[in-house]
Amino acid sequence: MKKILLAVGLLSLAGTAFAAGKPCEELKGEIAAKIEANGAKHYSLTAVEKGSSADGKVVGTCEGGTKEIIYKRG
Fold this sequence. Notes:
Blueprint: H1 2-20, H2 24-37, E1 43-49, E2 57-62, E3 67-73
Antiparallel strand pairs: 1-3, 2-3
Organism: Pseudomonas deceptionensis
Protein name: DUF1161 domain-containing protein
Keywords: Signal
């Protein structure tokens, strides 16, 4: 029984940490590394408020889901 309660508690903490989200600069760095590993050289990543009309493709969310990372070629 103690193991079950411990597991539930750990999952709850993990969910809280996940909901907090990553800082945008950290996530942009991770995404940039993946893009460059695929051979892309000319692109931009921009953090914008969620729901704003930005030109490009949404490739991630950050800061608790309040912002989106936008990828644009060129």
